[in-house]
Each structure stands twice: as C-alpha cells, then as structure tokens.
Design goal:
The protein contains 4 helices and 7 strands, in the order ααββαββββαβ. The protein is of the alpha/beta class and about 150 residues long.
Length: about 150
C-alpha cells in the first residue's frame, strides 16, 4: 500500500510535467530537494533550491515541449520516512517538428511523500544530437551549459 502511494506521487509528477504545470510538480518536492541531471548539456544540473528546480523545469519545457512519458519499470522500497524509487522511462516529444524519443533512469529518495533527492541518468548522446539541431536552428538555450548553484 505504501509503495502504491509513492508510485502515484511519481505518476502525478510526470503528468504535471506533461501538461507544463510546474507548480503542481514542485508541490511534490521538499524546498531543500537536490536535483542532479548527469550531463554536460543544457539539461545538466546540480540544484538544491526551489528557484533552481523551477528554472530547470522551465528550461526543460522550452527545450522539449509537450513531453510524454511512458514508465517501463518502477520499483519502490522502504518506509514512508525513507522511500527509494527507481524508474526506467521513455520520453517522447517533438524537436523542430521531428519526433524525439529517448530513455532515462531516475532514482528518487522520498520522505513522507516529498522528494528530497532526484537523480536522472538519460541517454545524453541522443539528447546531444537534438540539442545541436536546436542550436543550429537558432535556439541558443539548447547549447547553454548546465545549471548549477554556488556550492553545488
């Protein structure tokens, strides 16, 4: 039962991201949540403030509009005060009018229903190709460096 609640929180978070509802998405995160996206691309990040998370999700929405997520695997373990989630997800979007598809692994730590750590490992080679096309088409943000905060 407890695992189902955490899985529902995760699914609601992806659904909020699909519809671009950043406020609803951020409601699932503690204010001091750490988000790490392993990459040296514009989606790369190491953030630990709500403002930093908002900037990342806003950038994500600009670079990959109308994303759709398909959960392949989702594993939940641990008690409510220290839950771990591991997911394998397919993402689909459109980049410059062409279909975009990639996959990522996501590892979350949740405490009492709120995300305290979010680690994302995506196939960055696939994303790098799409971001190069975006930059060539006049979208410089796709070539920007990773987001980070002082001390992160």
């Amino acid at each position: 039962m407890i695992g189902r609640v955490a899985a529902a929180v995760y699914r609601r978070g992806l659904a909020a991201l699909e519809r671009g509802d950043i406020d609803a998405l951020l409601a699932n995160f503690r204010a001091d949540c750490e988000l790490i996206f392993i990459s040296d691309t514009a989606l790369g990040a190491h953030l630990s403030t709500r403002a930093g998370l908002r900037r990342w999700f806003e950038r994500f929405g600009r670079l990959l509009p109308d994303p759709r997520f398909e959960i392949q695997r989702l594993v939940v373990a641990g008690p409510l005060w220290n839950q771990r989630l591991a997911a394998h997800v397919i993402i689909r979007s459109t980049v410059l009018g062409e279909p975009y598809q990639n996959q990522f692994a996501q590892f979350l730590t949740m405490r009492w229903g709120k995300v305290v750590e979010d680690l994302i490992l995506e196939d960055t080679l696939t994303w790098h190709g799409a971001s190069r096309r975006l930059v060539a088409a006049g979208h410089p943000e796709a070539g920007a460096g990773r987001l980070g905060e002082p001390g992160a």
